[in-house]
Amino acid sequence: MDDFDPSTRREMETFLAREQANAKLQHTIQTLTTTCICVTSTPSNKFSSAEASCLTATLERFMDTSMFLIKSLSEKQRSH
Predict the structure, then answer these.
(1) Among 57, 60, 66, 78, which is least packed by CB within 10 angstroms?
(2) pLDDT digits over 17-44, tens only?
(3) How many CA atoms, within 13 angstroms, populate the side-chain half-sphere of residue 9?
(4) Are 39 and 33 in contact (CB under 8 A)?
């Protein structure tokens, strides 16, 4: 990347960061859907209402936990 001008380098770094974030999100979604205990039926086009409710609650807890960890680590980093 040393051969590129600063503007192009920044653009490439931004693109790569976005792609890495997207890959991480896709991996998280795949992990949640393959390990979630809520889904008990054979895969189809639609979840049952009980599965949908359970998945919603699970994902909300996952997001709450993720935000708590990010906030906690951020505060810890600021205090050092």
Answers:
(1) 78
(2) 989 988 888 887 777 767 767 767 666 7
(3) 6
(4) yes
